[in-house]
Structure formats: structure tokens, C-alpha cells
Amino acid sequence: MEIDDWKIMRKAALIIFSFLMMACSELIDKPKNLISKDTMADVLAEFAMNEQMTLVVENINLDNATRYTLQQKKINGNDFVESYKYYTASGEIKEIIDRAQDLVINQDPKAKIYIEKKLKENKNVPAFAQ
User: Fold this and answer.
1) Most buried residue, 20, 56, 62, 65, by most Cβ within 10 Å?
2) Long-range contact set of residues 84-90: C-beta below 8 Å, sequence gap at least 24
3) What is the pLDDT of residue 78?
4) Residue 87 burial (CB < 10 Å; 0-12/13-18/19+)?
5) What is the 8-class DSSP label of residue 26?
6) What integer pLDDT is reported at residue 58 of this predicted model?
7) Is the pTM of this model over 0.85?
8) What's the pLDDT at 81?
9) pLDDT block averages, 10 residues each, the chain of length 130
10) Which element (helix H / strand E) includes 123?
């Protein structure tokens, strides 16, 4: 009789575990105002170029440049943050960052050498932190 109870318990545990896995399939809920991948790539490329401008122009205000970029794309800062979190949690951020790098390289072909150098220096750093 104990063996039958054990089998029933294992089956019940398996069923409960399966339901839990299906319920927790996403780490984070999709934001209501999710920004498209292409737009995210555009914004990240602009952010990267703005950051590089600080090397050329000493008194540039990076916060204002960031706000301006978001205004131009008609994106709320909160929506950007929530979308960035979502894409990072879903693992799609690497694809978006690769698109952003392509955009930067298309605008400035010399950037390719710089990007490759930085990627070699930071090869163990996750894509979202590079």
C-alpha cells in the first residue's frame, strides 16, 4: 500500500510542478507600453553616440542629451526603463544591442575598430553591461 501512495504522490508532485513551470514561464511581465526592438536599438545607438560626444566636447550634459533623444523618439523615460528590463530579462537585449552596434557602425565606420577593441577588453561582461 505504501508503494501505491508513493506513486500517487510523485504523480501529483509532477503535475503541480508542471503547472508552476507553465505559470512562471516569463521572468517579467510584458510592459504595457513596450518599445519595439528597432526603436530600442535606435535609442541605444543614440545613447552610445552621445556618450562618445563627451570625449570631444567637454561640457556636454549627458542627461540633457538623453532626454532629447527620448523626446525625439516620443518615448517616456519610464517606458524605456521598463522595456529595457523586459528585453534584458527575456534575453532579447543581445539582439537589440547588436542592431544598435550596426547602426553606429553604419553612421561611423571607424567605430567598428573601437567597438571590437572594447568587446575584446570586456569579453566576460554580459551584453547589457558592455
Assistant:
1) 65
2) 84/40, 85/28, 85/31, 86/28, 86/29, 86/30, 86/31, 86/34, 87/37, 87/40, 88/128, 89/26, 89/27, 89/28, 90/26, 90/27, 90/28
3) 92
4) buried
5) -
6) 78
7) no
8) 93
9) 64 66 64 94 91 79 88 93 91 92 85 75 60
10) none
Cβ proximity of 82 and 31 under 8 Å: yes
Q: How many CA atoms lie within 13 A of 115 on its CB side?
A: 18
Residue 126: alpha-carbon gap to chain centroid: 11
Could you tell me what percentage of the chain is helix, strand and coil, using 3-state DSSP and rounding each to the nearest 5? 75, 0, 25
Local structure of 47: helix, strand or coil = helix
Contact at 8 Å (CB) between 107 and 63? no
pLDDT value at residue 97: 92
| pLDDT recorded at residue 6 | 64
Give the C-alpha separation, 130 to 125, whole Å: 6
